[in-house]
What does this fold into?
Amino acid sequence: MENYNRKQINNDALKKTIRLTFSYEGSEVKLDSVQHIRMIPPPPQPYKIEKGQSGFWFEIQDENQRVLYQRSLHNPIKFDVEVHGNSINEPSTRHKLKSPKGIFEILSPDLDNGYSIVLFSSPLGEQEFNKPASELARFNLKPNNQEDVK
It folds into this structure.
């Protein structure tokens, strides 16, 4: 993975960020919008995420599928909800959602050679989330659904 090193980038480049808005229904994920915004992007993952790891992360890749940036996240796809008991003595419990559905956003550096965003996830479900992650979705970062925000 090419190291995204903040010290090698000028101040203007540090303020280039993309906001990606996704929607999901079950395990089907769609990229709804890409906005170019002026703000300092989140830092990269401090260590390389290797194949076979569990969890949820995304990568920004170039046209040759080389990883330019990656960052792990809490899984934004909610497959269960926490329900609190009616009294202080009742424990909270988790309930599986019959049809998970929602929206989430990801912030990433707006890299000139960034061609695609790839989402990785362990199998969705409480019992399987510790299993190795695989590619969940891949989206082109150069489509027509982008807008500039100042």
About this structure: The domain at 6-148 is CATH 2.60.40.3250 (Immunoglobulin-like). Residues 4-10 have pLDDT under 50 and may be disordered. Strands lie at 16-25, 28-38, 56-61, 67-73, 80-83, 93-96, 101-109, 116-121, 134-140, 146-148. The two ends are 30 Å apart (CA to CA).
